[in-house]
Amino acid sequence: MKPRSVLTIGVLATLALGAIYFAREQTIQPHPREVHLRNIRQLTSGGENAEAYFSLDGKQIIFQSTREPYKCDQIFTMNQNGSNVRLVSTGKGRTSCGYFTPDGKRIIYASTHLGSPDCPPPADRSEGYVWPIYRTFDIFSAKVDGTDLKRLTTTDGYDAEGTISPDGKKIVFTSARDGDLEIYDMNLDGTEQRRLTNELGYDGGAWHSQDGQWIVWRASRPKTPAEIAKYKDLFSKNLVMPVKLEIMVMRSDGSQKRQLTSNGAANFAPYFHPNGRQIIFASNVNNPDPRSPNFDLFLINRDGTGLQQITFDQGFDGFPMFTNDGKKLIWASNRHGTKEGETNVFIADWVETGSSGDN
């Protein structure tokens, strides 16, 4: 479930099944106001590539990509410089949300392949801009080469958007098992699954802080009778409308919930800065039309103050993540694309000094 799906799919990159693809690392000039970014490099070239996340040591990247011969997203890994791209999912169904265990020995990701080897149908956009909630999504664990696949969730309905706590003990994820889209966590082996959120609306995209004490996530909160009725109607059709999402934080046990943004835009993909005091996220607050690909990255303090805009490209910038030492940032972007709607993975050195221009 990701806002990049509003973009027109570009020409797909070619990758033979099981082959190793060496990306050409390209250096890109930042926008003059992108003062926190230095030495921007493009790691993929062509198609739709997103949700790229570092291993704990920063040497490996796991990401999802739609590229030939696959008709929808599969999970791949690559080196930090974009080389040695490898398929690590089954090549069947649709996948999402890949992540490394802290020891680098295993990965997790969500997949629909047990429901069907084919790609599930796209969402019915006659309802407006909506995301599909595929009921056959479950979370799986595998070795880093994709072998030894183990199913971690078995409930009927959507289970996806999993990430792992830095100590490797907990997976936090989103599930529709109890009649709403809520945040849950479980042990790394799938045991002791518990619910952490309990308010009507979509709760998803959760991450732990580096000290494991906090969780940040995105949430919709329908308030009026019309909004509530619309949300429930869409949910009954396995759809959600993500045009209004706010950034939230809570303790890792589900206590002390607090809303950080209140701008009515589509704020998503939050991630803690390693300092634990700030959160980076994507938002279309500057152009809230859901049909527009104009998303930028922003930085905000954990108490909701100090909002700074980080990227200024006219297209899509989203899914940011820092290396554990805070020295590098990875994200997905439309910048420097050869075709309209092309989404690639970029990495840059992170510069702490200077101001990016407060909003």
Written description of the protein model:
The protein is mostly beta strands and 359 residues long. The protein has one domain (3-350): Neuraminidase (6 Propeller). It has one helix spanning 225-236, and strands at residues 26-28, 37-42, 48-54, 60-66, 74-79, 86-87, 95-100, 106-111, 131-132, 138-143, 150-151, 159-164, 170-175, 182-187, 194-195, 203-208, 214-219, 239-240, 246-251, 258-259, 267-272, 278-283, 296-301, 308-309, 317-322, 328-333, 344-350. Strands 1-2-27-26-25 form a 5-stranded antiparallel beta sheet, with no helix packed on it. Strand 1 (26-28) and strand 2 (37-42) form a beta hairpin. The chain starts with 25 loop residues before the first strand and ends in a 9-residue tail after the last strand. Residues 2-24 and 354-359 have low confidence and may be disordered.
SSE inventory with pairings:
Blueprint: E1 26-28, E2 37-42, E3 48-54, E4 60-66, E5 74-79, E6 86-87, E7 95-100, E8 106-111, E9 131-132, E10 138-143, E11 150-151, E12 159-164, E13 170-175, E14 182-187, E15 194-195, E16 203-208, E17 214-219, H1 225-236, E18 239-240, E19 246-251, E20 258-259, E21 267-272, E22 278-283, E23 296-301, E24 308-309, E25 317-322, E26 328-333, E27 344-350
Antiparallel strand pairs: 1-2, 2-27, 3-4, 4-5, 5-6, 7-8, 8-10, 9-18, 10-11, 12-13, 13-14, 14-15, 16-17, 17-19, 19-20, 21-22, 22-23, 23-24, 25-26, 26-27
